[in-house]
Every structure is written in structure tokens, then in C-alpha cells.
Amino acid sequence: MHDTEKQQFFGLMADVYAFYHRDTSRFALNVWWEAMKPFDYQAVNEAINRHCVNPDNGQYVPKPSDIVKLLRGSTQDSALVAWAKVDKAVRTVGTYRSVTFDDPIILLVLQDMGGWIALGTKKEDEWPFVAREFENRYRGYATRPSLEYPRWLPGIAEAQNSQAGQPIEPPVLIGDAVRAKLVLQNGSDTQRIGFQQLSDSEMQEALAPSSPRRLQA
In which band, very low, low, confident or very high, does the pLDDT at 133 lie, cut at 50, 70 and 90? Predict the structure, then answer.
């Protein structure tokens, strides 16, 4: 959600608490805002409505974790879906071009794992271990209510063009284009710093011009 939707969201939550005959507070509203901010307002509204009519727990006032679970599913399910997007992007787009995803947690996890370029240097036999590391890291981030994430992940072309002072192409949008644009718009320009030393062979492989990497099924 955008900051311009904050008061509208506060009004929605005031209505929700009134529905359950409960009073709210500025502190509670701020907690809700930080938890729901990564999501689209309409999606949050719909998830709250789904909670209210849930025959199992709809009689209880919702907690932020209830709505996050409705929006994302379990963290395990979300991690598997997120990795499927990454896997497909590596196979089809490749790491030569910069990318952004429709899920900001993907950007955080891949940045922690060394970045988009480093991902393309992984060998076929390493791929299952890369997937497991990604999923574990993703589940850890998915439990946090508010995260700062980069706008996009630089590819090889951007790295080369930046060093040469050449124009940089916009990143490829992966997943839902509308949500990916929101990630691009709301992300941080300050990259979280990570370090990974590539071997000489890995550097040569990363910088060698090639078609998008395709993994064996």
C-alpha cells in the first residue's frame, strides 16, 4: 500500500474493530499498517472480509498474522511459489539482464545469496541446494512484518554498463507486472550490502556473452 492510503486503511480497521465491538488504538493501527503495507489495499480488504466470514475463527477479531496468512498462504507454500518464479526467470531471462520480481522478499533473499549475477554461476548439481537455501531464507523473511528491499537486482549488462558509464536498460518484470511495478516503485535505492568472492572461472563464466541459462528438467 502507498502512504496516501494510510488514512483509508485506518478507517477500514476502525470499521473492523467496531464490527467486533472492540476499541482500537493508535499503537494497534500502526502495527497493522506496518504488517499490511507490503500488500495491495484491495487485497487486504478482501482478506479481512474472508476472515470475518470464516466459520472456524471468524468470531474472533483478526490479528495481523491471520491476514498475512490469508494473503500469502503458509510460509512453506509461499517459498515454493517464490522459488518457482526464480527458477523460471533464470531459465528464460538469464542473469545478463537486470530483474525485479512481484514479490519483494525474493529480492531480499537473492541479494543475501550473492545477487542475481552470482545465481547464474551455480552448476546443475548445486541447484537443489540453492533451492533449499532460498526457501529457508524466504520463510525467515516471510514472518517479519515490515522489510526494506531493493528496487531490482542488477544483471551482468547493468554491471558492465555502469562501469563503462553507458546507459542502463530497465529491469525485466518477473511475475505479475502490476505488482512488480509497485515493487520497483516502493523499493529502496540503498542496496543492502553483501559480499561474495567469485573464483576466476566463475567470473569468466558470468561475463562471457551467452544465451539465457537453461537448466535441465
Answer: very high
Phi, psi of 5 (to 5 degrees): -95, 5
Write down the H helix ranges in 120-172.
127-142, 156-164
Nine-digit cell at 111? 541479494
Stated pTM of the model: 0.60
- Name the one residue in this structure whose C-alpha cell is 470464516: 54
What lies within 8 Å, CB to CB, of 137 at 6+ separation is 109, 112, 113
What is the phi/psi pair of residue 123, to 5°? -85, 165
53 phi, psi to nearest 5 deg: -105, 5
Q: What is the pLDDT of residue 193?
A: 41
pLDDT digit string, tens, across residues 68-125: 888 776 566 778 889 999 999 999 999 999 999 999 999 999 999 999 999 999 998 9
Cα-based distances in Å from 123 to 148, 165, 167: 30, 31, 31
Name 173's bridge partners.
100
Provide the residue type at 153 as one letter: L
Cell numbers of 30, please? Answer: 500502526
